[in-house]
Amino acid sequence: MGRPKTQTDRRLTLVAAAESMIAKRGLAGVTLRDVANEAGMSSSALLYYYPGLKELLDDVQTKAVERFCTQRAAAVAAIVDPRLRLKTMLDSGLPTDPDDQLCRLLLELGAYSRSDASYAARHITLFERQVAIYVGILEAGAATGVFKLKAASEVIARGLVVLEDGLGLHLVNVVPAVDHASAMAILTGYAELATGCSLR
Fold first, then answer.
1. Sequence-distant (≥ 6) Cβ neighbours of residue 28 within 8 angstroms
2. Residue 184 neighbours by CB distance under 10 Å
3. E strand residue ranges, 139-181
4. How many CB atoms lie within 10 A of CB 3?
5. Which among 132, 110, 134, 131 is positioned nearest to 122, based on CA atoms?
6. What is the sign of the dihedral through the CA atoms of 150, 152, 157 and 163?
7. What is the pLDDT of residue 5?
8. Of 198, 168, 161, whose CA–CA distance to 183 is shortest?
9. Mean pLDDT of 21-50
10. 53: nearest Cα among 18, 87, 3, 1
11. CA distance linking residue 160 with residue 149, whole number of Å
12. What pTM value is reported for the model?
């Protein structure tokens, strides 16, 4: 396989290398040298594309947020039945296992949102885009009479995303507090209560 030749290709290679290192070591354990080694280049070469680790991680988070939201939106876009759309959305919101790299990445990067405004802004974008997808599903289901919403669609949607985040964090811990099946049961149970509709 040939080496990437354009700046865009090089940046994508470095982003992928950073994602891989974060998955292996956690965000706190990643250095520019680690990323450069993973990408097969020198630290000085990396600095040509990113002036520091923060700028690289900014790009990592931006691309991860976009990928996660796009995947979730695409998963439900062609589904007409509101129940199936909601079930599919729920299924896509939790890590598949502790090694789910994209979910781990977003959870790791989310921790920086407490101390960095740019991370916080992207984390809010991630949250609001997921809420918007849920709102669309809930309101379409209510309009057709399939769902009997027990609260405003936005309130339910925010509750679902918060539950996903909390359960996801437990699922990727070294010692998970819940397994995937239990987490899905909790998330689905809340969705059923909130919509007045069985999803099983």
1. none
2. 17
3. none
4. 9
5. 110
6. negative
7. 61
8. 168
9. 87
10. 18
11. 13
12. 0.85
User: CB under 8 Å, gap of 24 or more: what pairs does 169-173 form?
Assistant: 169/107, 171/94, 171/95, 171/97, 171/98, 171/103, 172/95, 172/98, 172/100, 172/103, 172/104, 172/107, 173/98
Q: What's the CA gap between 114 and 72, in Å, rounded?
A: 25
**165 contacts: CB under 8 Å, gap ≥ 6:** 107, 110
Q: Rounded to whole angstroms, how far apart are CA atoms 200 and 191?
A: 11
Residue 4 has pLDDT above 60, yes or no: no
Among the listed residues 14, 27, 38, 13, the one whose alpha carbon sits nearest the alpha carbon of residue 105: 27
* DSSP per-residue letters across 31-55: -HHHHHHHHTS-HHHHHHH-SSHHH
pLDDT tens, residue by residue, 50-93: 988 888 988 888 888 888 889 899 999 989 999 999 999 999 99
Instruction: Single out the residue of 125, 122, 146, 115 nearest to residue 59, CA to CA.
Output: 122
DSSP character at residue 3? P
The residue count for the chain? 200
**And the tokens for 124?**
């809010």
Contacts of 195-200 with CB under 8 Å at 24 or more apart are 195/86, 195/138, 195/141, 195/147, 195/148, 195/149, 195/150, 195/156, 196/147, 196/148, 196/149, 196/150, 197/83, 197/141, 197/146, 197/147, 197/148, 199/83, 199/86, 199/87, 199/90
